[in-house]
Amino acid sequence: xxxxxxxxxxxxxxxxxxSVNPENRTSLKWDLGYAKTxxxxxxxxxxxxxxxxxxxxxxKAEKYEPYFFAEHWKDYLWMEDQFYTYRTxxxxxxxxxxxxxxxxxxxxxxxxxxxxNGEELLSQEGMFTPVSLDLTDKLKKQNExxxxxxxxxxxxxxxxxxxxxxxxxxxxVSYGWDWHPRLIPLGIWDETYLEKRPSSxxxxxxxxxxxxxxxxxxxxxxxLSGQNLKGLPFIWTLKDETGQEVLKLEGKTELSFSNPQLWxxxxxxxxxxxxxxxxxxxxxxKVIQTSESKIGFRRIRLVMNEGAWNEPEGxxxxxxxxxxxxxxxxxxxxxxxxxxxxxxxxxxxxxxxxYNELLRLAVEANFNxxxxxxxxxxxxxxxxxxxxxxxxxxxxxxxxxxxxxxxxPHYLSILKQESASIxxxxxxxxSLAFWCGGNELFSAWSGMTDQSLALRLLxxxxxxxxxxxxxxxxSPLMGMGHGNYVFRDxxxxxxxxxxxxxxxxxxxxxxEFGMPAPASVExxxxxxxxxxxxxxxxxxxxxxxxxxxxxxGNTWLCQDIIEDYFGVSSSLEELVANGQxxxxxxxKCIYEEARRQxxxxxxxxxxxxxxxxxxxxxxxxxxxxxxxxxGFYAVKNACRPVLASAKFSKFKWTEGETFFADLWxxxxxxxxxPAGKVKIKLVAGTSEVPILSWxxxxxxxxxxxxxxxxxxxxxAWSTDRFKVILEVExxxxxxxxxxxxxxxxxxxxxxxxxxxxx
Amino acid sequence: xxxxxxxxxxxxxxxxxxSVNPENRTSLKWDLGYAKTxxxxxxxxxxxxxxxxxxxxxxKAEKYEPYFFAEHWKDYLWMEDQFYTYRTxxxxxxxxxxxxxxxxxxxxxxxxxxxxNGEELLSQEGMFTPVSLDLTDKLKKQNExxxxxxxxxxxxxxxxxxxxxxxxxxxxVSYGWDWHPRLIPLGIWDETYLEKRPSSxxxxxxxxxxxxxxxxxxxxxxxLSGQNLKGLPFIWTLKDETGQEVLKLEGKTELSFSNPQLWxxxxxxxxxxxxxxxxxxxxxxKVIQTSESKIGFRRIRLVMNEGAWNEPEGxxxxxxxxxxxxxxxxxxxxxxxxxxxxxxxxxxxxxxxxYNELLRLAVEANFNxxxxxxxxxxxxxxxxxxxxxxxxxxxxxxxxxxxxxxxxPHYLSILKQESASIxxxxxxxxSLAFWCGGNELFSAWSGMTDQSLALRLLxxxxxxxxxxxxxxxxSPLMGMGHGNYVFRDxxxxxxxxxxxxxxxxxxxxxxEFGMPAPASVExxxxxxxxxxxxxxxxxxxxxxxxxxxxxxGNTWLCQDIIEDYFGVSSSLEELVANGQxxxxxxxKCIYEEARRQxxxxxxxxxxxxxxxxxxxxxxxxxxxxxxxxxGFYAVKNACRPVLASAKFSKFKWTEGETFFADLWxxxxxxxxxPAGKVKIKLVAGTSEVPILSWxxxxxxxxxxxxxxxxxxxxxAWSTDRFKVILEVExxxxxxxxxxxxxxxxxxxxxxxxxxxxx
Lengths: 758, 758
What we know:
Chain A is α+β, with helices and mostly antiparallel strands. Helices cover 16% and strands 30% of the residues of chain A.
């Protein structure tokens, strides 16, 4: 393919909310080549989509089958080890006196060099540190810009697993996870363009503020950095949501803001955003740059969970657990949320719209917190902008997960660079709840400890650059729980169900817990060849899509558990329906029990929310790309601000047995509620058995109420399941419904599937 | 008193090992005055001893009774609220061309201003940041230097307790503790002098090194700072213990040192020290400054305790505990040690000799680790120099203890300054094992959390200035135990003895545990007026000296517990003897059980070693100033590198009951041991009952061996106690001996003392 020179033109590239004179930006047309070695010249050039990923360009040009169907992802594996070159040609644009031409890329994944007309201008490791290269003095009439991208970083060639990523600040998930195929993105993954800039230019602008004790005043300090700013005047204004200017500051960088409207998560108030505008002026007073962004004022702390100071008791006495109670604007809130994972295997193709559909569903699910898990990327700006707008809190992890990241100077220097870039960008967003070093780092399978320099460095970086945001080194902290990830323990000697497991549990926060379910049949048909669809088997596309051997045992399909309760499935539809039912019932159990354990318990975030490609079975609530499973709606109900809830002891009940359940009213509402009445009944087919009616007392804001235990001898039904229904008089929006497996005396299920793990 | 001008003269003030041309130093003669307000002029001047404390000067001049006798310490209380002025007069010395006259003080406690001839030259808060003031350009012929010292810092006037110190970097102990009277030192507390310095001068010099993985090479990097060093040549040499020069570096700052002799704690090898000499030359090559210090090469890490990665089990799963296993030069060692507290209430009077007598005893006690508790000061240089020489490891805490130190900008700025001074000084010593934020900060009575900015700051400071040393935020960490502090639990519903308490305990480290004992009668006579000596009572000097109401219940005398075992004491001598016996037996139980729990358990450091004044009863092993209690020798025996040991279930046994004990051989020795034979027998008076003989197998280095359980029906003795004796054939140095209370059937003890807490 013959290269053509791009004519420099005015191009709108307003991919970000923050509009920095977008008319000065020009997007580029890129080609891509690859070679087996660093010195080899690419044999051919193919068109590249930027931002994107080299694999997607290769697949398109070479007509690869889609990676998400069957086992085609295996065809892409070789691409992780190639050397890639992006190339673009452009003519020198006309520049006014003093004007500069700057090459900007917000992210290139992962190690790369940049050449202009054959001269190396930059060598960088790290995908989160943006590139901003002033090309002006090197420009010729015709210019060739090249980005040379190294193969995926690996500390060793084998084993081929996530540990290969343990010495780099590259998200580990793409090296293969129990719900992610091995596909390691490479290439330009975020906005990239040429920009004409005045000789004086603000590159970074931060409205640093601290709210006083009673939240009545924000002490604001503006922080500007960029080129040749010394001595130049600037004007900063703050407008409220009506467009009214509420603050104006000329030349100075500090002021007090009285009675700011506070930003709240959506379920506790309004996520109020102001518009901040900074204008740079030249010495004659002419505006030479304008930059706009949203800011929200809130104070976030991690404070001690109620009752946690009373532990431990007795001697010898160890320390109390670390705090896991989020307090926002002085109010302790119960965090209901989920673990967010990359919504795409290739982050280059994530758009604002893609984020928006998932975040809209998160609000619909009554979530107020997203844990952005450290195995994946730190999301693009539009993610945080949308969270700011929608009132979703973000627990942001650094890209460390399940590895032992070393006390090694080179790694630490890259981590320092990358974390500074991440913190300086994300700290501007009111949705940021707190920082976290990464996932499960203080667990045996990772092997890091409090002494690991990487985590001490991240703590130090966050303290220096964003002291007002809490920092935790990892999750789980002591007193927080991760797991289980199945409805019933996989240990054949244990087999404990989620109901009794959660009743025994006593944690400050449940920050990961999973319930697997198969994807819906429609989704399965798009990823598994027709001939493999029924019955599911290991060694087929089912396994590639994580139905088998994904975690331990027969995860994630867990057909044996499903059929243990409901008998052998006669069709894919039946298996899927029963599996999805169990997911929903299991998740409801955990979310509602975590809420009952409030205020000692302060958080419940399931593993996981979304997925980066369509799995056949997974703990996710949403199938790729944005298709809620039935479990999503179960969780949505369990996370309503107010609901009638019941605590159960087990899932399967037998005819004649005394069924029992503890009644509760749960409220996370920031306001009081009047008294009311709950009725509980059992329903099997058309048979209804009322058990109890409970008159609950008026409820204080954000406080639950425990009720009586309802008991009932189970009648004879000819069914394999029944429902428990809680009805709240005059408040059907508080009603709840649970399904249980039922064993009539007269019927024996035929168990043709073997008991798991035996 | 009429002031006299000090004639400048050559004075040797070689208080420190590091000899920086000591002939250039001149000590000063100081007077002291005080006033009730800052503006008031002192009414009179009294002689001051420097270093010292204002209280000691006042007491001497005004003939106060000694603070350690009876309750005279109360007479000193008013002094904490006065404003003090130190004053000295001196004539301008002759200075060679370019020479500077610098006022140096290594420590002034706590907030102060310095004036020369009426002009304020410095205002400082913080006792750990040395002062180095160039006076040259301000000198007159006759000069007056004044140091104005503010009253003791207090966040509020009431309550009068340690919380008053919660917003300052002043050790909290002097505000009153359960073994420390309220006496808050103020004034010049470390070496202070005038020094003639060349115009170019090295003020700080650090031999920074990192040992490689197999310890065969040290990568050395010299760090110099001072005045006008740019362009001047310097020579660094390193000499071994024989005086042989092994390294020489001219002008450069980096080199590799192959096969350095390693520094070891005394029980694991030789605490090898090299002599480092830095010489500063002028441009003509003439030596203008020589500075000498000792350095040792060792690598220290905190690594995971053996077995700790296997915990916790099951789901939900929280994190594994933080590491508490010290590894030095690649070898995991069991730390046997103690909690070091200020050896004087007024640190200004601590001398090298005072440190030496206590540190000599620490080595005698077979201790290898001192936890320098955060309630007290960071010790003077001579402390660390002696630890370096003697091979004692130092767990160094910052001056934070049992308070909630705030997220407050002023406090944090002083903490940053003080911690930098502390780290830069102490990091040079091979005896430094690790840093710790302070004492019991993550416990309910302190109220700090992992989010506290002070602790995040200290972590960050240590990482920046001394990344090769571990840092822990506080003690206890999760998995470490503090307490109990009594032989038998004080809760009347519990009363659990140390024997069963320790048998149940499962901790990575026992970093505080106490056993109270009264001081010996000779000591008691020096502090308690004769008429109060017998019987001890609350509300007397006994209480002032911590025998009553010190901690909880009847601590620290615990007469009820003592008499519960041995009956009502008929004399002071009997009470003291029984109390001291119980201390020793309790301490042996804990040290030996902690060692039996090796390798999961890695440390045992009792509370506490020494004391800053003579207490009547305390957990200390050593009475003030350096008088070992019998418990000291019990601990010394329990900490021998090799010993026969037994595990017991309780303290008091009854005639006819089956006595039993589990036999062990304990070894922390870094080398293997041959097989041997242990015999166990019971001894009461002249009656000896052999029980069992055990042939133990050859023992691997640093590994214990569990033996059989010895059982024996207890015969009828007419005694209230018996001994258990373990004899190791051919190795009497491994023998052990324990004492137990005995209850013959025929005798009933008369209980005239009430049962505690009822």
